[in-house]
Amino acid sequence: MPTLIDSYSESNQSYVVAIGGTTKSFGQGFTVGASDVILDSAKFYLAPSTTPTGSCYAKVYSHTGTWGSSGTPDVLLATSDAYDAATIPTGPSLITFTFSGAERVTLTAATHYFVVLVYTSGDAHRVNVYADGSSPTHGGNAAHSHDLVSWTAQPFDDVCFYLYADAPLTLVLADTITLEDDNAGEPVPLYLALDDTIALSDGLASAIGHHLALDDAIALSEQATPDLQEIALYLALADSISLSDQWRPDLGAGEEIPPVFPIPPAGERILTHGYLTDVIGPAEDGHEQRVQLRRVPVHGMEFEWADGGRESQLLASLLYRQELQWTVPFWPGLTRATQVAPATATKVYIPTGFWATSLWALWALEAAAGALYVVLWRDPWTCEAQRYTGHGSDGGGEYVTLAAGLAAGWPAGTVVLPATLGYLLGETPRERLTPAAKRGRVALRSLGVIP
Amino acid sequence: MRPLTSRTYLGVDVLDGPFDSAGLVLDTPARRITVIGPGPGAPWVDAHEAVPRYRRTLRIWNQGPDDLADLIGWLDARRGRALPFWLPSWDADLTLWEPAEPESGIITVYSPEDLGYHALEFPAGPSRRHLLILAAGIDPIYCRVTAIEDHSGGAAALALDDSLAEGLPLGARISFLRWCRQDVDEARILFHPTGVSECDLPIIEIPQECPA
Fold first, then answer.
1. Nearest CA among A160, A179, A159, A161 for reference residue A169
2. ipTM
3. Domain finish residue from A124, A148, A166
C-alpha cells in the first residue's frame, strides 16, 4: 500500500502555470523521510488550458542547488506512465501519474528530489499546473524548464503535488535468508522455517534475472500439500508479500490445548528421535533404493508406569475418553520452576543456564513453529499446559514465556516440562498385579512440524 | 565430550567415535540365499545378494547434554536410514606379512592361494578395498587398495592409493571400512535416573553402494 512521502496541498494554490508551450515542465522539490522507499506515484493539481492533447508525464529527478531556494532538477531518475492530457477534467483535479516497472526506483532516505510535470505538445495545447506564489510554506521550491535541460528555480513558489511510495519489501519474522545473485533464470528455492525472516531489497530484483523483474507478479504461496516444503519465490518490488505458510497443528478457534498426558514414568524412559525412510530392495544384486519421506525428525516418549491405585484409575479414565490428541510431556527435559508462577503470569522462571545445557533444543523446530508447549506438573491430577513463545533472562533469572497467562498459580519447585502435541501409539498394555496395583507401558509420538 | 564422528573419508563421515569396545558383540554377516526344495530331486540354491551385508549394533553412551547433542546431530545428519557413512570394522581383517616401509605405497598381507583377500574379497567389488590401519605411535591411516601387485607364496602385495607417511610394524591392525547406513529410522534413547543415557544404533552394511 503506497504511503504519502511528501506533499503540498492544492488548498494552497494561488496561481497557475500553463505548460506545453514555451514552458515544458514545472515541478517541486520534495524530501524522502527516514527510510528508503520505492517510488509509486505522483499527483499534480491540473486543469486543461487550451484543449490539451497527447501525453503528459511526471518525472522524478535528483535535486541540485540549495534546498528551498535555488533547488532545481538534476539527473532524470524515473518517468511515469503516459497520461492522456485530453482526459484531464475541466475543473482543476488531482491527476495521478503512476510509475511502473523499472521506473519504480528506490528513493534514498533523507534525500531531496524533484518531481515535475512534463508536457511538450506546443502552444496550442497547454495544461494548467496549480501552484502557490503567495505565501508558500513547503520546504522546497518550485522550478521550471523550457527545454528539460536547463532549469530555473522559483524560490518563492511551491507547486501543489503529492508523492507516494511503497515501503521496502521487508518481512521480518527471525533468521535471515540470503538470496544469492547467481540464480538468474531460476526461481529461488526458499525453505521457510517457522519464524524465519525474509528480507528483500530492490537490489535483488536486478540481480536475480527475469523472474524478479520489477513489474513481475509475486507468487509466494504455501504448497498445496503439507508434505512439500520447497517454495519457489518469484517476486517484484511493487507487490506485497504475505507469508502464510507457517504450519503447526491446527488447534482451532480459541487455541484449546489438548489435555496433558499426565502419567509420569516410573522406570524406563525412552525418548525417540526418528525419521522415515522408504527402503526398496535390496534387489537381486544387493542394491537398494532409499527415499527420505520425512524431512525433520519426530520425537516420541515411551515409558513404563506403575501404580498402586488411583493413577491407574486415572489412566483408565483418560484412555476411555480416547483423546485423539494429547499434550505430550517429554520427561527427559524435566526442570523445575525457580520462582512462584502466579496465575495469569506469562513467564515461568527456570534454573539459570538450563536452556543452553538442556534437551529443550531438541524441539527447536517445534518452538519455531509455535508448536512447543510448556507443562507445569505437580501430580497427575494437577498440571497445566501453555504454548511456549520464547525464552530469555532478566534480573529474576532465566525464563520461558507463554502465549497465554497461566490458569493457576504454581509454587517454586513445580516440575516444568517441554511438550508437543501428540498421540498414543498402538496399544497400552498393562499388567494386573493386584486388583489395585498395576504397571504398564505407554508410547506417545509427537505430531511433528513441517518446516 | 565424545564426538561420534571426528573425521571424514572420501567426503563422508566416519563413525569412529564408538571404538570397538562400545559395540555389542554381534557382528553378523548375512546374505539372502533362497533354497528351493521341491521335495523329490535336488534343492536349488539361489543367492539374492552378491555379497553379504554385515549387521552390527553399537551402543552409544551419553554422559551428559553434550554427548546427547552430539548423538542427535549425528542422527540428524543420517536422516534416519537415508544417508550412508563409513564404519570401521575395528577387526584385524588383514594381517601384515611383513613390516611396511615408510614412503611405500604397498603393503603385503597374508592371503592364502585361492582363498585369501586377493582371490575372494578384492575381486568382489569396492566394498572391501577401503582400509583403516591402526598402529601404535602413528595416526590412523585411511586408505584404499587400488590393485593387487602380486600374490604368491601365501601373500599378496596391495597397492594403496597413497604412500605411507610412516612404516607399519607387523602388529598393525588393518580393518575394513564398511559402507553402512542405519538399520532403523527411529533412534531410541534410554534415560537412566543418573542422567546418563544410552542409545543402540543398529547398523547395516550396504556394500553394493560402496564408492570405488
1. A179
2. 0.84
3. A166
